[in-house]
Amino acid sequence: MDDQELNRLLREWRAPNAPPDLRPPRAHTSRLRWLVSASIPVPVPVAVAAVLLVALWMAWPQLGPTPTQEASAPRRSGEIARYALTGALEGFDAVLIELNFQPGVSAPEHRHPGPIIGYVVDGEMRTAINHEPDQIVPAGGTFFEPHGALHTSFSSAKPDAPVHAVAVLVIPNGSPLTERAAARSGAPQVPPPMPYKAVHQPEFVMASQAAFLQDDDIVLGVTSGNVAKAYPAADLAQHGAVSDTVPDGPISVTWCGVCNTGLVFRAEVKGQTLNFQYDRMVGANEVQKDLETGTSWQQATGEAIDGPLKGTRLTLYPTVRTTWGEWRRRYPRTMVLKPLPGYAELMPSRSKRIKDITRVGPEGAPNGALTLDKRLPARETVAGLEVDRESVAYPLSELRVARVVNDRVGGLPIVIVHQPSSDTTTAFDARANGKALKFQPANDDASVVIDLETRSTWNAYGLCIDGPLKGTQLKQLILVPQFWFAWSQFHQGTRVFTAR
């Protein structure tokens, strides 16, 4: 549906002579009638959600489960489809979700980052917002939540029967569907989400001015020449991409919150600097489109999947995923990406979520994942490494135990060092002066390691700080930290490291 068609449907929806097949059946307690009568002003995202829901309602008999499916295990709630909107709603996604609640199961208090309109297919829904009295919505009825409302009750109304509903949300690009509510007493208001748009003219502040960061916040750190820069994950997660220039050229700093992937690429292809912006999701991973050629690029791999540059692959740029405290310790004069107005207020909640899911990932793969390799939980965070067409996934849960891993990948001797205190993982070519070395941790946090061949002492970043090889710097290898489902679907047959 293009913008003109959408606008035509919106006009017909609000007109007194709307086509009969666009009018849902009457249902008591339905707030959707406000939209039909135009008795209150309707924000455009709400109107879009209404039109999408009506289209779904008309098609539902064809989309319903077959008798075989009905007899199988209960379907899980979740996202069915997500589409990026254009025109006046650029920067927002229309998301279709399915809701299935068994008797006695209810959702915890939560908020949505945009308005939601729902339709009860089977059963009866018990719902309430902002601690108002519960409302019972029967099959054929609809429910509505304005943006920012606290959803305080959401379950089947019958103690012995499930409820099945579908809903449409209009939310910023790439946003999660819900945010867990804070404690009831004195709960702060959740700031409204900001548009999910890339940053093409970033500003930076000195480390001493970064009051918006806590020591355990995750950052992507980049160095070039005498320049060190930190890009907070909680800010990147609100933009998807940041275009920047360092002494050795243009780069794009990217983040996909759905697959917990933060990567940096060289942003120059065939002599042309590219700037990237969120386009859509493929395989539950962001696809970003460059503004210069219109080519679409898979964020997890850097590969152009359609457009004039299809088949081209962006070059990964060295980066370290670490904490702000650890990065600032190494680079006291580092510069830090300055959040745009309105974005800093959302960083604490985003930061907590990123830290939580990195430590213990949510259950199951997100909708849209291409394949599911069951050797690891779908959303366990791994550090992926690819050398000469061989790939290995190093689960962070295993690295926290091993701390130092001596391995061979693609015929290359490598060493991986993990510092559990900051969850910082680094990887290097383990050769020095043409000789392969093996390492072991010298302290509990592996912030210092020793090679077994010369007994030289090295820091966790590949620099020899004492012994016969003092001053030698190992060549850094670029790791790809992300959820297992994302790594495994783009690296079929990858090896999995285990410390046991």
Concise overview:
With about 500 residues, the protein is an alpha+beta fold. The chain is about 15% helix and about 35% strand. The chain has a five-stranded antiparallel beta sheet with strand order 1-2-9-4-7. The protein has a five-stranded mixed beta sheet with strand order 11-24-13-12-23.
Question: How would you describe this structure in keywords?
Answer:
five-stranded antiparallel sheet; Rieske Iron-sulfur Protein; 500 residues; globular; Jelly Rolls; five-stranded mixed sheet; 36% strand; 16% helix; alpha+beta; 3 domains; disordered N terminus
Describe it for me?
The protein has 500 residues and is of the alpha+beta class. The chain folds into three domains: 3-180, Jelly Rolls (Sandwich); 204-358, Rieske [2Fe-2S] iron-sulphur domain (Rieske Iron-sulfur Protein, 3-layer Sandwich), CATH 2.102.10.10; 381-496, 3-layer Sandwich (Rieske Iron-sulfur Protein), CATH 2.102.10.10. Helix content is 16%, strand content 36%. The chain is built from nine helices and 38 strands. The strands form eleven sheets. A five-stranded antiparallel beta sheet has the order 1-2-9-4-7. A five-stranded mixed beta sheet has the order 11-24-13-12-23. Strands 19-20-21-22 form a four-stranded antiparallel beta sheet, with no helix packed on it. β12 (218-224) and β13 (227-232) form a beta hairpin. The chain is globular.
